[in-house]
Design goal:
Shape: globular
Structural class: mainly beta
Helix content: under 10%
Number of strands: 11
Distance between the termini: 37 Å
Strand content: over 45%
């Protein structure tokens, strides 16, 4: 089963965008959001544990990005507000079973979505 992320898009700095990810049952999984800008390594953005809804976001996006889930739709969301030019990247969702202290470890996620481009213009 493939993870399917919603289409990203082009947005002006200061704007908002919401990404969604679905396509499989998320029960018992941690669903992580990552991004990769050109020439840079893939980096952790945030994650949510499906069972219970605990979330965690990276310091670089704290206060601007939030993770959530819709249990009825088996869908997770990454709400991105106050977007900055430096948020421009390909965004990925992924599932895994890392412990909380390792939610930011890319290698612990084993099902990945196809990636979606988010471009923030100045």
């Amino acid at each position: 089963v493939q993870l399917q992320a919603s289409r990203g898009g082009l947005v002006q700095a200061g704007g908002s965008l919401r990404l969604s990810c679905g396509g499989r049952s998320f029960r018992n999984y941690v669903i992580g959001w990552f991004r990769q800008a050109p020439g840079k390594e893939r980096e952790f953005v945030g994650a949510i544990k499906w069972n219970g809804g605990t979330t965690y976001v990276a310091d670089s996006v704290k206060g601007r990005f939030t993770c959530s889930r819709d249990i009825a739709k088996d869908t997770v969301y990454l709400q991105m507000n106050s977007l900055k030019v430096e948020d421009t990247a390909v965004y990925y969702c992924a599932t895994g079973s890392p412990v909380y202290s390792a939610w930011d470890q890319t290698g612990l996620y084993y099902h990945w979505g196809q990636g979606t481009q988010v471009t923030v213009s100045s």
